[in-house]
Design brief:
By secondary structure, the chain is α/β, with parallel strands linked by helices. The chain contains six helices and nine strands; from the N terminus they run E-E-H-H-E-E-E-H-E-H-E-E-H-E-H.
């Protein structure tokens, strides 16, 4: 991937003096323009929060309006079956995207004189994978990290003593056929084993989607961790 072009995307800025920033990381094949409407559902007029949705850096071959944070099929092989060669491609893709996300978030923190502790990172599907990886990558404490219909990528490197202080919300549909519920159970186990404080919800009769109930849980999570 190695895309050096800075990230960009739409925003929802109801206040000129935000106390918190929310970053929305879309899923594989989606784009920020399609994802930013979630901000209006998460917006609470009582809270001074601005919302930002960057587009993932790479388009998907044969589907140019869809974006990706990393290639799910390095060398044409599904990343779940990847050999060490493909895993290295995936790792470099992730690192490239993580650097771009870091610059994007840091620039907005500088603009509003805020820190990572004032930022919520919310991701759906592949965006959820990136949200958690980003917290590990910068090894910092955030206001919150929300994983919607995602998973935590395999790693030996979860013991990040600053990031584990970040509150985590993880929500998954029990009928998800894109990322099966086993990934929810796996993620909860990882979070528990490494000392994260987290809230987890396996939603009955829901698939790979962001439902109204999921948005309500996310909105309440943001309000709870505004301090």
């Amino acid at each position: 991937m190695n895309n050096k072009t800075p990230l960009n995307g739409p925003c929802f800025e109801p206040t000129g003096n935000p106390k918190k920033l929310v970053f929305l990381l879309h899923g594989y094949g989606d784009n920020a323009e399609n994802f930013i409407p979630l901000a209006t559902h998460l917006h609470n007029p009582e809270l001074n929060i601005n919302f930002y949705a960057p587009n993932a850096p790479s388009s998907i071959p044969q589907y140019p309006i869809g974006r990706q944070w990393f290639d799910l099929y390095p060398n044409g092989i599904n990343f779940n079956e990847a050999s060490p060669t493909e895993k290295e491609i995936l790792k470099q893709d992730c690192l490239s995207s993580l650097n771009l996300i870091k610059d994007y978030i840091n620039n907005l923190c500088i603009k509003y004189k805020l820190t990572h502790k004032d930022c919520f990172i919310i991701g759906f599907s592949q965006g959820a994978m990136m949200a958690f990886e980003f917290g590990k990558y910068v090894n910092n404490t955030f206001a919150g990290c929300v994983l919607l219909s995602g998973r935590i990528l395999p790693s030996e490197d979860h013991e990040k003593r600053y990031f584990i202080k970040t509150p985590v919300l993880i929500v998954h549909g029990d009928q998800d056929t894109v990322l099966e519920p086993k990934y929810f159970e796996e993620a909860c186990k990882i979070l528990k084993n490494h000392g994260f404080l987290f809230d987890s919800y396996l939603m009955k009769n829901e698939g790979h989607t962001v439902s109204a109930e999921t948005l309500k849980l996310t909105k309440n999570f943001i309000k709870k961790h505004m301090t």
